[in-house]
Amino acid sequence: MGVSQRLKTRFRRFLQRPGTTVDLAPLEKLLPAIEAREEEVSAFDDAELTDAATAASSYEEICALGREAARRGLDQRPYDVQLLGAMSLLSGKVAEMATGEGKTLTAAIAAYGHVRLGNGPVHVLTVNDYLARRDAVWMEPVYTLLGLTVGWVNEASTPNERRAAYACDVTYVSVSEAGFDFLRDQLVTDIDDRVQQPLRTAIVDEADSILIDEARVPMVLAGSVPGEQDPVHTAAALVRGLRKGRHYTVAEDGRSVAFTSAGLAAVEAKLGIDLYDEENVEQLSAVNVALHAHALLHRDVDYIVRDGTVELIDEMRGRVAQRRRWPDGLQAAVEAKEGLDATAEGEVLGTIAVQAYVGLYPKACGMTATAVLVGDQLREFFGLEVAVIPPNTPCVRVDEPDRIYATRAEKDEALIDEIKRCHADGRPVLVGTLDVKESEQLAAGLNAVGVPCVVLNAKNDDEEAAIIAEAGAHGAVTVSTQMAGRGVDIRLGGSDQADRERVAGLGGLFVIGSGRNDSRRVDDQLRGRAGRQGDPGGSVFFVSLEDDLVVRHAGDTVPPSPRMNADGLVTDAQVDYAVEHAQRVAEGVNHEIHRNTWRYSVVIEQQRKALAERRERLLTSDVAALMLLDKMPEKAGEMDEDLLARVARSIALYHLDRLWAAHLAELSEVREGVHLRALGRLDPLDEFHRAAVPAFTNLVPEIEARTLATFTDTEFDEDWEPDEAELVRPSATWTYLVHDNPFGSELDRLIASVGRRLAGSGSR
């Protein structure tokens, strides 16, 4: 047994240790009782079924009635394992269910159960708008038979449509849309303007993706403020003509870039200034950001340009990351690089991380095909345990060992040869690539050798359902940037399964990864597209020692002269270990980033909650009017009670919202500058808290002081409106998600550039 296989065996044994996942035995004991009720409930007419469903109060009743509703509404009888999954969700667990095992129906039964157990309304949080609408419409017949209402929300939904959807028993909505609606509701000045009901229960689809990969992503509500484009465009024009090697160098890991002395001299000559003079810090920062955008962010890899806008690509899914943008001026720098107008930065009015938003639900559970590998993180950040649901039919997919090549060119040649061989036999092939550029290059290579293929990437993700549905057809070759969260099953023989037996006889769908991802879960999700519900299938990953993952995280563990064949195929167990080691290191890095980011977010979230409670009292009671009566009884006794309440509420809410926005901006600046304290051997987190806590302590007194000042300086009548006192709110708001800055903060880059300047000053 090789080193790689021994490691895999040890890891599987570790996962099987008692206590690492939930014991399903107590739930399995309920299955006979559920089945025993099947004959009885099948005899109900639809009205009787609905009546019984509205009275259900136990897991057995919920599952028995849910199974019958699915049989009638969808012509599908849920398997026992789907009921185990539903009961796991009802128990507040994350259910790991293999791809193709029917998670959508499982979630519907669980959502019904949560409502019946008094935990409604239920939000089913999805990864995108498409799945939210599809699943709500698909499951609606089941919910109707069970006596429940169901709605869905997407980006295009109007406030009234959102309000109606959230008023349903079950609402399907992407986690970002739900978060944005929450933020907007936090700024209303009239209770009737809210769209959400109080949060109660969340069922999180693709739980590992949302709760781990996206957990630290801030959702932002901003007031539109025009951006300053000139400095950004000037800097972009300066670096556009610079050449790699002569004017700048890129680090081996591809995550940092530095001016050479010649490059710095060229930029300074064009500007006619010394960039390192104290008064030129802003220009220095803009030039460094522009250089990062020019040298390190690549079109069709990190982003695409479509309809005159820069759209970021989600590296975990290979699709457009809707409404996401880079921070620290990097977004504007990329837009300038592409010759586009810079979009407004906007004043941040409210923000909440995905992790914090999900944490607001008193009850949460989830489902995914790959949860065990992040079980510790789910427990650490959310207090959630994993329940591994066995497949209905044992998986017979053949997972081949990685094929590792010395160079990327040798890997690409072998990859095309393998696809060509499978296609000649008629076996369908699904290839998962790491980015858009690679998918298009592979497609071009396949076309050059006479292998037709369809490509699914961030440029055509609207067509994804139809493309994926036919990926199992005889002779099909599908090239995709990732498969996580695609949400469509691949059936052997195509969507109509016309050639099912023919394809099965060839070994079923063959999944090929063109490289290892930073996460084993993403690789496993790709593998899981083959071998659905006991189908035959196979998988293999092609890797090269020049792949970014290996170069960044395993350079020291790769032997200098590994054993290999004449075609470049490596046959060295030490290299197998190095590739797995690289992936584990990458996962560890991401975990530490998640933990560290959350440590900074905790204090902000605590402050947000405290201020939100105060805002709720201002919005729903006369506490502001009582304060004015106490502080200024003469003027406040002169006013009608209703007018005083309306005036006091408007003024207090305005100042609370304005000061919170200013506080967020201040904390952002503190977060940027706090790393300088590390140079003095101080803990950045402690220093952040030392600045953030006093700033918030002063917030409430300042809100009251400004409220009193406005009340003192303003005359009121029955027709008074806030704008008469210049209490003007943003005329428009917009939402976005802050994408991870791949190069650290603006300050990190500035410090690095200063260090490089000092190190190279002797050679200029």
From TrEMBL:
Q: What class of enzyme is it?
A: translocase
What's the encoding gene here?
Answer: secA
Main location, first listed in the record: membrane
Name of this chain's protein: Protein translocase subunit SecA
What's its catalytic activity? ATP + H2O + cellular proteinSide 1 = ADP + phosphate + cellular proteinSide 2
Give the similarity note.
Belongs to the SecA family.
Note the subunit structure.
Monomer and homodimer. Part of the essential Sec protein translocation apparatus which comprises SecA, SecYEG and auxiliary proteins SecDF. Other proteins may also be involved.
InterPro entries found in the cross-reference section: Helicase_ATP-bd (IPR014001), Helicase_C-like (IPR001650), P-loop_NTPase (IPR027417), SecA (IPR000185), SecA_Actinobact-type (IPR026389), SecA_CS (IPR020937), SecA_DEAD (IPR011115), SecA_motor_DEAD (IPR014018)
